[in-house]
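Input set for joint prediction.
Command: fold jointly, output tokens.
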Amino acid sequence: MLQLENITYTYGAKTPFEKRAVDGVSLTFEDGKITGLIGHTGSGKSTLVQMLNGLIKPDSGHIYLDGRDIWSEPKKMRDVRFRVGLVMQYPEYQLFDETVRADISFGPKNMGLTESEIAERVAEAATFAGVDESLLDKSPFDLSGGQKRRAAVAGVMAMRPSTLVLDEPAAGLDPAGRDSILSGIRGYCESTGATVIIVSHSMEDMAVWCDNVAVLADGKLCMTGTREEVFMRRDELVAVGLGVPMITDIAYALMRRGFTLGGDIYTVAGVAKSLSAAGGGRHA
Amino acid sequence: MRDITLGQYFPGNSALHKMDPRAKLILTVIFIVVIFVARSVSALLLLSAVTIGMMCSTGISPRVYLRGIKPIMFVIVFTTILNLFMTRGDELLFEWGIIHIYRDGVNNAILMVVRITLLVLGSCVFLSYTTSPISLTDGLESLLRPLSKIHVPVHEFSMIMTIALRFIPTLIEETDKIMSAQKARGADFSSGGLIKRAKALLPVLIPLFVSAFKRADELAVAMECRCYRGGEGRTRMKVLRYHARDGVMLGIMALTVAAVVIANIYVPIYRLR
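tokens >
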């Protein structure tokens, strides 16, 4: 369980470039759920996630991991980082070792695990992240963009963190690559019961893969709740420059024209399902 | 990583900011020479006054200048110790075992510290803080152009310098990013002995090199796409021109040089050996 209490962070304090990136954010991330952190470019998402594993120290406020303030013992920050796995934005650049296998082992090795345990975790993480067995002995620099991304995600999953944070894990991938990486994250969440936090600005992805959604605007938390609760407040989302998934807009338009759509109006599959039921009713 | 201010440009609107980079380069060279010409306390005081005046005229915060001195603190301390203990003189101030401190040693130490500080502050105020890297290399290229007559590839050198300067902040940013990513995987850069620390840097250096080479390739292609063919026949959007203020500044510098020489000869309060 990860809790934020009144987190504030300012870039370049006391210089002409001063900017308050995160402003009084309090938030609780639930275990076993995927929370989507949505916000416009420059809304403070990336700054916030770098505070979750102690890469950045908040100017004020507290971050509690399982009830303990992570800054109470800065010397033990490494342990916090093993428990809160962070996949940074465009994580491909973190690959460095001779083989993909060795690179995924980097985290577990730093944890001081035994050889056999490392091998087990590498295999597990590779499966979750969708890194094919045959790629493990290749050089990470020979992989394609999507494969590199998956290898980098596996490198963090291999630490088996109880909280997994991913900053734009699907940015710049093609639709197939996006779905495969996000479904792998869903799989990790469900089978380990981990707290998962995904940063994104794609409402479509959030609608499909997240349980809860938190919306950041200008460094402030402006909405939080389940996916349905947040996407219901369409006008407010539009006001902060985000909007709702395209399919939700279409569903609303259809409802105005007399269709009755119930249940999930946030994903294409959900709308298709209720539309075929409703459409069948109209034609009859 | 963020403390590298030596060689960082602060945009502004002062006379020094607006000067022609060639004039500023000449000014800096003269200033550096004159620092070593100044041998008496009076001359160095005069130079300090001129430097402080110039610093104030740029409108850059004094704190920024202080930060510029921080990286050479070690050199300053080292020079002080060396001068303090190694200079022999007539008047012994302090003696303990093999340590002898003479009045000349104290004087030398103070004067050398002033000199080094002026050297750094001067190059900051005349060049790096008030001149953008691009106009600096433009100025350098223009000043060195006569050398191309004897087949020195002046344009190529200046292009290399421009590109290098342009990518320093990018590389620093990238290093920060990679370090964060590896720290997130439990990398430890701050404990252990020298060898362990050097080894810990490998996961940072390898991706850094890989991306630097990739970026170089991409930059070369992008330049060729815009028909870059070297300096031959290249025209410029911003053509360098001398203005009245360049003459005024060089005049002030000439007066300073004259004043320093006079102070050296006629007010020799204490002369450096």
